[in-house]
């Protein structure tokens, strides 16, 4: 072995470096090692000189090193020469230390020209690099799961969110395919809910198997994730005894899989499986992030489900406050539109009704309750049902009955006043006659055959405030070719983005410009104009109801 001249200035320079420098001769024995090895690996430099390089390696790597070093001696080429690679080194105390290893070839001096070239290795503690890489990975995983959650917030309900979960997860976390297993709490099992695969990583065998399979608690990767309520990893799917679909994953060429539970508190909502066609490491940091993501997604989905149930109940309640269909009135065409207000209003306060009377007349009612929600819905129900019960009287008598019922029902509760327009329609020889009364409500509009529209009636005071309120009746004729339009203030008070209201003048122009005696055309034109007014507006719309009665020519 040629002598390494430690007395040279170069040796002093190497000794001053913070990195560990190891020089090995052509036989693979240590010719020189810098003092920094004591700090990095706990060895005395003098005791290492003359020993094989394998003393610095874990046992499992020594065989591969011998083969690689022999190949390097024969060819002068090595995979690690000229590159920096992260490898485990063996500490004197017996544990492993991650180091960044850089290898290079050192040609001997002329006096040693008969000797093999030296190999110089520089070892640097990689723990800081690893920590930074892990922190970067954790940040990337967290950012990905935040993007998943953000994407799910755009879903309209829990079912839509479930469908979006798999492609979003795979795309953000760079997995090739995914399965979603939904909890069937009634039968105590997991059932297949969805499959997703990237365009270049189709999984037909796994997808086909999933449609026929269920998992019970503790069975397969999904069942174990359910049982342990923590992410489960299968590094080698085909060889893992916990995997019960080995034929399918083998057929699809899948290598690595991970399953994690989607939890809402202690309740399991689903288990999500991610698959990769490449063998890939699943670090503890990713498992921790997936476990956190499963709980976060679970809480979000549970809230969506609860909101969906509330919305379904609200829609049912709202339908109960409106007629299921408009009746057929001889000689009159009816049309109506209803649209609930903004997202904050689960149940609107607008209602309308058309009720036949025993003597061939018809009662028509449109009303608007102050506020929204369950309390407003209760007031709406009282208004509608009281009006129906008192429908044999005149419009004034009907409004008085509703006013008395509202005052009785409210008691000490917060004030919920109601505006309403009530009319009684009676067929005649030429068209129909109308008797109407208004309680604080927008006046109805009448358009004649001449295309002129105008408001009719006398505005009174709202219902539910004063027991002594009085109303005025107005009588008018609806000859052939005329249209009567009743509406709520959600029409005229609709605001554009600048805050400008739609207004009564615009409504008059639309009613006047609609086809003569075409009830459907009138309500369609009004609704379209209001929607155009609201398009792009930051202002939340109010409930809207429009009811038209047209007498054809």
Major beta-sheet overview: 6 strands, antiparallel
CATH homologous superfamily assignment of the largest domain: PPM-type phosphatase domain
Binned strand content: 25-35%
The overall average pLDDT, rounded, is 84
In short:
This protein is of the alpha+beta class.
Features:
553 residues; alpha+beta; Beta-Lactamase; Phosphatase 2c, domain 1; 3 domains; 5-stranded antiparallel sheet; 15 helices; 21 strands; 36% helix
Describe this entry's structure for a reader:
The radius of gyration is 40 Å and the shape is elongated. It has a six-stranded antiparallel β-sheet with strand order 8-7-6-11-10-9. The chain is built from 15 helices and 21 strands. Helix 5 runs parallel beside helix 10, helix 6 runs antiparallel to helix 10 and helix 11 packs antiparallel against helix 12.
């Amino acid at each position: 072995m040629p002598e390494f001249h430690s007395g040279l200035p170069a040796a002093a320079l190497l000794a001053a470096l913070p990195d560990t420098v190891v020089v090995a001769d052509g036989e693979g024995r240590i010719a020189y090692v810098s003092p920094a090895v004591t700090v990095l690996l706990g060895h005395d430099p003098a005791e290492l000189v003359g020993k094989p390089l394998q003393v610095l390696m874990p046992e499992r790597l020594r065989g591969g090193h011998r083969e690689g070093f022999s190949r390097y001696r024969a060819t002068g080429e090595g995979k690690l020469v000229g590159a920096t690679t992260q490898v485990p080194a063996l500490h004197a105390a017996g544990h492993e230390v991650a180091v960044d290893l850089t290898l290079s070839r050192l040609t001997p001096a002329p006096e040693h020209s008969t000797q093999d070239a030296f190999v110089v290795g520089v070892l640097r503690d990689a723990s800081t690099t690893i920590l930074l890489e892990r922190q970067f990975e954790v940040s990337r995983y967290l950012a990905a799961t935040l993007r998943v959650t953000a994407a799910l917030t755009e879903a309209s309900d829990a079912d839509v969110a479930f469908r979006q979960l798999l492609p979003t997860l795979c795309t953000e976390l760079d997995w090739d395919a995914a399965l979603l297993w939904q909890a069937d709490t009634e039968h105590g099992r997991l059932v297949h809910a969805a499959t997703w695969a990237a365009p270049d990583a189709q999984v037909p065998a796994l997808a086909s198997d999933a449609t026929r399979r269920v998992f019970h608690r503790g069975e397969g990767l999904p069942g174990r994730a359910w049982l342990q309520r923590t992410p489960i990893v299968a590094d080698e799917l085909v060889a893992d005894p916990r995997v019960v679909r080995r034929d399918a994953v083998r057929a699809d060429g899948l290598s690595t899989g991970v399953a994690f539970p989607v939890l809402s508190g202690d309740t399991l909502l689903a288990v999500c499986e991610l698959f990769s066609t490449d063998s890939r490491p699943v670090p503890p940091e990713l498992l921790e992030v997936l476990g956190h993501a499963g709980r976060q997604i679970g809480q979000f989905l549970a809230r969506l489900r609860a909101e969906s149930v509330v919305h379904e109940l609200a829609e049912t309640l709202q339908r109960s406050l409106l007629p299921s269909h408009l009746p057929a009135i001889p000689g009159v065409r009816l049309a109506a539109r209803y649209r609930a207000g903004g997202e904050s209003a689960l149940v609107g306060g607008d209602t309308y009704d058309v009720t036949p009377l025993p003597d061939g007349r018809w009662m028509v009612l449109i009303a608007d309750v102050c506020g929204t929600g369950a309390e407003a819905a209760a007031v709406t129900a009282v208004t509608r049902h009281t009006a129906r019960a008192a429908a044999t009287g005149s419009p004034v008598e009907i409004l008085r009955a509703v006013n008395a019922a509202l005052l009785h029902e409210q008691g000490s509760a917060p004030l919920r006043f109601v505006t309403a327009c009530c009319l009684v329609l009676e067929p005649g020889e030429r068209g129909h006659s109308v008797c109407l009364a208004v309680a604080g409500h927008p006046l109805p509009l009448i358009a004649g055959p001449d295309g002129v529209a105008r408001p009719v009636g006398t505005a009174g005071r709202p219902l539910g405030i004063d027991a002594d309120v009085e109303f005025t009746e107005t009588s008018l004729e609806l000859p052939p070719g005329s249209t009567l339009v009743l509406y709520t203030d959600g029409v005229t008070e609709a605001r554009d983005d600048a805050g400008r209201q739609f207004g009564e003048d615009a409504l008059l122009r639309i009613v006047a410009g609609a086809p003569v005696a075409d009830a459907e055309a009138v309500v369609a034109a009004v609704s379209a104009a209001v929607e155009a007014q609201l398009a792009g507006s930051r202002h939340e719309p109010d409930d809207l109801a429009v009811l038209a009665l047209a007498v054809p020519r």
